[in-house]
Design a protein that fits this description.
The structure holds three protein chains of three kinds. By secondary structure, chain A is an alpha/beta fold. Chain A has 13 helices and 20 strands. Chain A is globular and about 65 Å long. The longest helix of chain B is centred in the middle third of the chain and has 24 residues. Chain C is globular. Chain C has one domain. Classes of the chains: A alpha/beta, B mainly alpha, C mainly alpha. Chain C: InterPro entries: ABC_thiamin-permease_prd. Chain C: Keywords: Membrane, Transmembrane, Transmembrane helix. Chain C: It comes from Furfurilactobacillus milii.
Chain lengths: 473, 218, 194
């Protein structure tokens, strides 16, 4: 029996833009665990928000009907809809109105007009189920991404919604929290007969859990249900892509260090990296890996003075906390995980002109830039607003802008996310070139490891609060 | 006291002393504020802060009125200086009598301020630490591109608004999916009442203030 | 069935959150001007010119109104925007000073008039400049009473008013216009206006 029905749905963010979802007819069965996958930026999130009734109320224009339990979702007031369709969002920290988990649950039940004397039992049940009881009265600002997603689950349980949607919920959270949440979600399907759709580009651990796999095809702006054969192929392909470690050299002691860690500890509540001591060599391409939420970005923040630390962290023999930010920024720069953080103007051409104006050497000429833009498939977009680029295009432009600056040491936080394999190779080639020909130092965080070992010199791995060099990548 | 009643009282007193010139009224307001703060066990540092923060403006205005105004009135110089302190201490009185959350909850239930404003503001305040770090990120990322942003740089405010646009969209969607319906009726786990003595205190305070303002006291 | 988000004069949840977050940003960015204000006051006190410190910087604290009016283009946006900003100031500054909320309302009402006089049809340098003028006039009338400005020599009153207007024009019109030009060109507000 189908729980959710889409009937010839077309959605545009703006009339002038091409549709994100086109003539979509689709259904999801009652009491099933469904996985929706596809490249990032195709519209998985849009589809979930349409089912949740958030779009087109908040954004865009839609044609066609979407029903849950045969009721059109757009016709329901939010307080009724929330009891039918609940959602866990991509950014853990941007989904709560109140200061503490308990108050957020009370806020939710007040919205549903639950009588005051019925609230406490429902709140404590939900907190228990989601494993939140221990930190129910701590402020959200002190909770990790994983803890915040557990609170989001608690809210969903308190809402007692029949349909649960999860939009890339594990992007910023540690593996233990991910496993816990997946287990509890399975319980919700098996024991409480909920219908779940998870949008995720990472397929690991799902195969035994799910009933159906749905695939978003970005070219056709449509989702289709994969049959058993296709699902199997997908999972197999994903597994293969995951594991093909190639051998890589270990750094030798005589290399001159760019960064030196000595008893270095960093973290908000509990240490993420604890008492680390090692060197990161100069003029090399080093790749930093580790599970989500373990502290890779926090290390980068510390390296560019955006995060305080204890112990010692030195750049070319000088303690980083004591350096002047403005001068240091001319030696060590960060390519931010959020590409848009790097932009300062409006169009692609203006951004490039800005980098050219302030570049430290004349290594990048206009003709070299034009050639590189072409190789990155960014040519002819001079007048495009940077914020309207796709995530992958933003990433590519961002890397190019920072390469033009010609800063001696570049830290890159997941520059390959959302890039197709060809583009990823082009970016890696550019970075390799900067190391070999221009004697720059490159330190890059990535989850996408395919072929990276062909370009990198060393592999640094973060695990159990410790950093160490690995002999394979 | 109920935060809404207290806020109305404090606003009323604030406006009235703006239109009158009685030093004693300001001094008594400061004294009562100190008493209330003592009762709420305000830390010593908060008194020091309340004495120091208005010091420069108060001295500035005292000098301006005393020596550079048309009448050069000593009395009016003291009125203005004590008025600045009275504003500050009224703030201290309110701050230590309640919390932001209680105030907003009371404004929703007792003053019937639309819930959209109450919960919109509450939700936005969760972003304070994120906003602090975002300002640092915007500045740092500009420095990495060779540009130093100042508080008057349009790019700094523009980038701030870009972040605000993103976050407000995300939070509003999440709150809606948590069942929040703009200005629709809600139940309340804790119902906030206004005890009768709140009205009594308010009446006594207002009458007392009139007696001082319209007495021979200067 | 064609569905589309509508534009109205009502304040929606995301508008309140947007303006509040923007105000918190401004509070944090302009925090440094607190020291500037104290320094200026100290320097000007021996000359009896202390009130100028306030008027030179006042434009910064009245920016939230015109900015909100521009971003939301609603009737009442300047008033409510400035009132929200003053509530933010009260909460972040840890001081629920009554004067903060009262000034916030007076300032918001002042900047609102500029947009009212242009019938909420113009959102450009002309309406921003007019709004800077109305804000200067309204807040000045309030300060004649509240801050004792009426006691000063006529030449000083005129000079204070001119200083205030320039400050409000520089920050409330020039800077706001520069920021909103960037916003317009980025088209980031378009989806919300749809």
């Amino acid at each position: 029996m189908s729980k959710i029905n889409l009937n010839d749905v077309t959605f545009h963010y703006e009339t002038t833009l091409p549709p994100v979802i086109e003539h979509q007819t689709l259904s999801f069965d009652d009491g099933t665990f469904n996985l929706l996958t596809g490249p990032s930026g195709t519209g998985k999130s849009t589809l979930l928000k349409l089912i949740a009734g958030l779009y087109p109320a908040f954004m865009g224009e839609a044609i066609g009907t979407i029903t849950v339990n045969d009721q059109p979702v757009v016709d329901l007031p939010a307080s009724k809809r929330a009891q039918l369709v609940a959602m866990m969002f991509q950014n853990p920290s941007q989904q709560f109105a109140m200061e503490t988990p308990r108050n957020e649950l009370i806020f939710t039940l007040e919205n549903l007009q639950v009588p005051a004397d019925k609230m406490d039992a429902r709140v404590s049940d939900a907190l228990d189920f989601a494993g939140v009881t221990d930190f129910a009265d701590r402020r959200f600002t002190t909770l990790s991404g994983g803890e915040q997603q557990k609170v989001s689950l608690a809210v969903i349980v308190a809402l007692n919604a029949e349909v649960i949607l999860l939009d890339e919920p594990f992007a910023n959270i540690d593996p233990d929290a991910r496993l816990f949440l997946l287990t509890q979600l399975t319980t919700l399907v098996k024991k409480y007969h909920k219908t779940i759709i998870v949008a995720d580009h990472d397929l690991s651990d799902y195969e035994p859990l799910i009933d159906q796999l749905y695939i978003f095809d970005g070219e056709r702006h449509q989702v289709h249900q994969a049959d058993a054969g296709e699902a199997q192929t997908r999972f197999a392909a994903f597994e293969q892509r995951q594991h093909q470690p190639a051998p890589i050299a270990l750094p030798v002691a005589e290399l001159s260090p760019e960064f030196t860690l000595d008893g270095f500890t960093v973290g908000h509540q509990t240490p993420l990296i604890n008492d680390a001591s090692l060197n990161i060599p100069q003029d090399k391409f080093v790749v930093l890996t580790g599970a989500n939420g373990t502290g890779k970005s926090t290390l980068f923040d510390a390296l560019v003075k955006l995060q305080t630390y204890t112990g010692s962290l030195q750049w070319q023999g000088q303690e980083i906390s004591k350096l002047r930010a403005r001068k240091y920024a001319q030696h060590v720069a960060l390519v931010f995980q959020q590409a848009a953080s790097q932009f300062l103007t409006i169009t692609v051409a203006e951004e490039i002109a800005l980098s050219l104006k302030y570049q430290q050497t004349a290594a990048w000429t206009q003709s070299r830039i034009d050639a590189t833009l072409a190789s990155l498939d960014l040519a002819g977009r001079d007048d495009q607003v940077v914020y309207s680029l796709s995530e992958g295009q933003k990433k590519k432009l961002q890397v190019l802008l920072m390469l033009i600056m010609d800063v001696p040491t570049l830290l890159l936080d997941e520059p390959l996310t959302g890039l197709d394999l060809v583009s990823a190779h082009t970016v890696l080639k550019l970075l390799r070139h900067a190391v070999l020909e221009e004697h720059h130092t490159v330190l890059m965080i990535t989850h996408q490891l395919t072929d990276v070992s062909q370009y990198a010199d060393y592999h640094l791995h973060l695990n159990h609060h410790q950093l160490s060099y690995e002999a394979s990548l | 006291m109920n935060p809404t009643i207290l806020l109305i009282l404090v606003l009323f007193v604030g406006v009235e002393i703006s239109f009158t010139s009685v030093i004693w009224a300001n001094v008594i307001i400061i004294a009562i504020s100190v008493l209330v703060m003592l009762r709420h066990r305000a830390p010593i540092l908060s008194y020091v802060r309340l004495l120091l923060v208005p010091l420069i403006p108060a001295v500035g205005i005292w000098f301006s009125i005393r020596y550079f105004s048309t009448a050069q009135s000593v009395h009016f110089a003291w009125v203005m200086a004590t008025r600045i302190y009275a504003y500050a201490f009224l703030g201290g009185l309110f701050t230590f009598s309640t919390t932001t959350e209680k105030t907003l909850a009371s404004l929703e239930q007792n003053a019937h301020i639309p819930s959209t404003f109450v919960y919109g503001m509450l939700g936005a305040f969760n972003f304070v630490p994120k906003i602090r770090s975002e300002v640092k990120i915007i500045r740092a990322s500009a420095q990495m591109r060779g540009i130093n942003l100042h508080f008057w740089s349009p790019q700094l405010l523009f980038k701030a608004i870009v972040a605000a646009l993103n976050w407000s969209e995300n939070l509003a969607e999440a709150m809606t999916s948590h069942g929040f319906t703009e200005n629709a009726p809600r139940t309340h786990r804790t119902v906030i009442h206004i005890p009768w003595w709140n009205y009594a205190i308010t009446a006594v305070s207002v009458i007392g203030l009139q007696l001082i303002l319209f007495s021979p006291l200067k | 069935m064609q569905q589309k988000a509508a534009h109205s004069n009502r304040w929606h949840l995301r508008d309140v959150i947007l303006i509040t977050i923007t105000s918190i940003f401004m509070g944090i960015i302009f925090f440094v001007t607190g020291f500037l204000y104290n320094g200026l006051t100290l320097a000007l006190t021996p000359l009896g010119m202390a009130p100028f410190a306030n008027d030179i910087l006042l434009g910064l604290w009245t920016m939230a109104g015109p900015l909100a009016a521009f971003m939301l283009q609603k009737v009442g946006a300047a008033t409510i925007g400035e009132l929200l900003a003053s509530a933010v100031e009260a909460i972040i500054g840890g001081q629920w000073g009554p004067s903060t909320l009262i000034s916030g309302f007076v300032q918001g009402f002042g900047s609102e008039l500029g947009f009212t006089f242009t019938l909420y049809r113009r959102y450009d340098m002309a309406s921003l400049s007019l709004s800077a003028l109305t804000t200067a006039i309204v807040t000045f009338a309030w300060d004649l009473v509240r801050s004792g400005y009426a006691a000063y020599h006529p030449w000083m009153i005129v000079a204070l008013f001119i200083t205030r207007f320039i400050s409000m024009w520089v920050f409330g019109a020039l800077l706001v216009s520069a920021v909103t030009k960037l916003l317009d060109r980025s088209h980031l507000l378009d989806r919300r206006h749809a």
